[in-house]
Amino acid sequence: MRPIASEQNPLRYPLNELLGSQAHVRLLRVMANEVNGPLSVSDLAKHGGLTVPGAQKALEKLYQSGFISRVGGGRKHQYEIRRSDILTQSIVELFKAEKDRYEQLLTKIKNIIKRLTPYPYAVWIQAVSGEFGEPLTLGLLHEIRHLTDYIRQFRVQLNQVEKGFDLTIEVKGYIKADISGMGLQSITVLYGFLPLPDSPVREQINRLPTHHEKDQFLSKLSCKLAKAIEQDVSLIQRAKEYVNRLLKEDQGMASKDIKEWRDILDMYSVQRLSRFLTSSSDRAIRLRQSNPFMAILNPDEQSLLINGLEEKNDT
Hints:
Mean pLDDT: 83
Shape: globular
Structural class: alpha+beta
Radius of gyration: 22 Å
Number of helices: 15
Number of domains: 3
Helix content: 55-70%
């Protein structure tokens, strides 16, 4: 049985086609709000969490609609959203509102965490269901003597957030002994720090005896970051958004360095930023301590970076 009783004119109702599939929405979101400039099919597929054939099929449909444009020829085709169109301008704003809503949710949860004492070791987003109406699950790491009382206070404070976003939030408490066997690769940390999984790199970092050796490690890491940025300029946009989120909150003594990073990310070209990351100037060495790129890399990207150092015994 057909769910649609009558067809609608795509010229009058183009959003039926533009937003008619999850693949279309994911690709438009990437082009509108997550990257600057054109991207290849494979890069769009990676950023959108799609297969390359699936992305190719969806891009062809979007291209036929006239709301995205194609750059280059042959197998080197790249795609970007047509920002001059009044409808795509509104779509860009819609995706921005989507992102702002999520950031507001995280900010409200973080503010609650900062008001409760004694402070936990860490709080993180543990699970988000792919279905509407399912709860958001937060993990909480605390000392066993404070865990029960902190969870009780936390849940009471979260009531207003749940009401404001029409969302159910569940909290699961852990002590340090619980963490060792957990998979922490795909979580989003909201507060504090979680123990890293054991690895040769971690052991090297933990036993670096001098400030000089730590600087050497960060220098080599920055060289790999510079190459990663040259290959994927969307990392710069992600770093900008991360820095701007930090500056909306009180970062104390760290605010000065974060503002410097904001200016660098806003003003430097890709090539100049790459040179700065690998520079031996006093300013570059100082700002490596607060480099925002490590915070915005997903677990796979971080692993790629660290494993590369590990394989070469650079640490």
